[in-house]
Amino acid sequence: MPQEIQILNYAELQKESVEQSKEYARYGKTQTAREIFETEWINQTDTLTTHLINMVNLSSSLELMPQGMLKAIHKSHRTLQAEFVELITKFLEEYGNTPSDHIDARNAYAVQMVKRMSQHKFPD
Known about the structure:
Layout: H1 10-26, H2 33-58, H3 64-74, H4 78-95, H5 108-119
């Protein structure tokens, strides 16, 4: 049975970050609510991405996953659809900058492909 993913919404995470920052201050620790929030947001994104990667690993057909992703995105607000595509684009650009010590024969083509994609200039 897959592990359930616990995700806080943005407002809850902000509130918890402020409370945790106040708690840290009582013990002389100096971590701002913003720093706590950003760390937790990155951790949550890491968890979701790990689950998605695990699905890729278990999938017998990678053609099914895009269908599920499209099903989900088409249920979203149009602005969120655009922001999601922007997120994926930014991720691909960053992936194209993967340091050479993280590249070998298994992922070299993927890194080169996204490098070429990010160099393409689309019309405005």
